[in-house]
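<goal> How does this chain fold?
<body> The protein record starts here
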Amino acid sequence: MSELVTGDAVVLGLRPARLPSRALAAAIDLAVVFFVFILISVVVGIASVTLDEAAVAAITVALFLLVLIGGPIAVETLSHGRSLGKLACGLRVVRDDGGPIRFRHALVRGAMGAVEILMTFGAVACIASLVSARGRRLGDVFAGTLVVRERVASRGSAALPPPPPWLVGRFSRLDLSAVPDELWLAIRQYLTRMHQLDPAVGGSIAGRLADELVARTGIVPPQGIPAAAFLAAVVHERQARDARRAFARMSPVAGPVAAGGSGAPTASGPPLATAPSGAPGTSGASRFSGASGASGSSGASAFSVPGDGARREAEGSGGVGGSSGGFAPPG
């Protein structure tokens, strides 16, 4: 995997295409180009039987430049780096920063390709691709491009961790209408990857997301709940509401479903209070603790993190009150 850094300091994990797949894609492209070149040459040869030899030679050179060199350049420019051979092999030409190529990139690649592929029968391109760490030929080096693999083995989407049992149904009356889709997406991405993050970084991200969710819903943060557990419980509540609405639409005998989710199980804890108007939003210190009890967010937190003893007991050999999602109940 090649680590490329964009202008926004984002590391891209791209898989560079190696020589076998690139050679197969180039062979398909050359076969198509030569077939078109021969077909056009036959048609032009029949139409130019009355011309002299100089005119025929000029037409032949023009066809060579337009079809064998200009054709691949036009195809890569219009398809943003996906010629017929690359499309068949699951490859694409991109810039060094991962963006789509433009005409100037395709022009440099096509001009260098006439030298290292057509005139040397691909010998120079093969040697350069074998020497390069990312499998680039000379045209890619001069154009600042890279051929990457688009079709990779699917690893499947990571499932969301279930909320702690002691939080299921506790947010059944929470108003989620003001939460935007962008925030839901950010929360889902965090929950599916929180075990891969550094504890301090993950705690800071969870605190910021929980603070923004509190500001959107107007809820007073309950004491003793970690930020990651709060996020998982609210996402679970939203999924339950969506499932009930979908079932109500599919079933003709089902009655109307209450907005708060009347069928949701209730928790034994006290009801949630609603923050008064003008409650602080996401500015200032985070009111939530980290997902793993790490000091990822600065400032005082309104949520106490479960103690180490309670966490080890809950995450140990499946004690009472434990959760498969890795969340521990308050100590």
Summary: The mean pLDDT is 74. Residues 75 and 83 are 6 Å apart (CA to CA). The longest helix spans residues 19-47. The chain is about 45% helix and 5% strand.
